[in-house]
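Page 47, continued from p. 46.
Same chain as before, 469 aa.
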Amino acid sequence: MQQNTYDFGLVGLGVMGRNFILNVADNGFKAFGNDLDEEKVNALVKEGGDTVKVNASTNTEIFVASLSKPRKIMLLVPAGKVVDIVIEGLLPFLDKEDIVIDGGNSFFTDTDRREAYLKEKGIHFFGAGVSGGAKGARIGPSIMPGGNRKAYGVVKPIFEAVAAKFKGEPCVAYLGPKSAGNYVKMVHNGIEYGLMQLITEAYDLLKKGGKTSNEELQSIFSSWNKGRLQSFLMEITADIFKVDDDLSDGKLVDKILDKAKQKGTGKWTSQNAMDLGIPVPTIDMAVSMRELSALKKERIEADAMYNKPELSNNAKEELTKKMEAALYFAYIITYAQGLHQLEDASKEYSYSLELATIAKIWRAGCIIRAGLLEDISIAFKTNKGLPNLLLSPLFKKKIEETVPAAREIVAYAATNGIPMPGLFSALSYFDAYTSARLPLNLLQAQRDYFGSHTYERVDREGIFHTEWE
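Result:
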């Protein structure tokens, strides 16, 4: 084996890592993989077909020595301690100016810590969110890099080659310093949680309220995916309703246990939004619903205890039409909340994020890709200081056209006992955000009453306190 002949190295040859490194090789860059599991190493070498283009080893020293300088090494391993362990294993063989890239879903403060640690040793480290799942890694993901701009410049030709393309534009761009890439990917995942929750609610309402069959649902979601709701999540939802169950009669979706799992990135988005003081209630509710779904035994017991309203008759076509509009409304609100968080975090953490660019690189490859993102990108490009998507004139008409349907669907769901917390929260967020006056003046009076927390007035400057008793 010749040394220093491979352009790109990747540690972690699970399905995602193997697919990404094969994507690199397909685009004209020689790639070398590394994994402790010999079976995964052999699988990559076999699938690669030509060791001149794709090779791998379980030996870290051989792996590092096989890469051209400055070495470009990407990690696709589970977030947390594993990343630190891999970095420590690489360090004895690295040289100054080498580049280490964390492509996993690491928490952004961990990325800041690792960057500072490796900077002292003369090694560049940055996080790059990768979205698109295993298939996206193979044919073109959306990539969200942040960190040292010069170091990214070295990796840029490779990332632009392997990334998904939208009308010829690669869905990757330098986003900002430090942990900007990992932070954007975290919020991307939060938006993903919100959109998935909203789609499941639409499914539930149509199934219960419209007595819609799986075959009809497949047709409905497929039709929606051809219109303004066009998105990856809509596309795969339509596909899901096609699949028969191999073990019994009927569709597979009906046999899947209704207990959702999560890896934590949605929760991180909610927690950090609260730290920043930015409201993202639709994302919060999506996280909460996954947690509530896990209480299966308690839900069964509670279901038997309480009576639900009898479902009122509703014309299926009309219900479907209104649900489409309500879902489009809630899509906009969910993106608005996530992007509002990014705007505020950009100032708080000195990322200098460009939201128009982020929306552009989400247009293809990633899980939350949607036709709506083209207009979102235009909205933020037109007004770079736009604090919230709801303040964009471009979205005013879209909201005004769809919010009446959202109100009708929310009312129908509440009256008929169909849980739609994602849509409820989206509508409440919109109503609160567009209210010049909220009843929180009373809350401030309460706080001052029991805790002397003071308050401000609408008619004069200053801080005030009242002895209420």
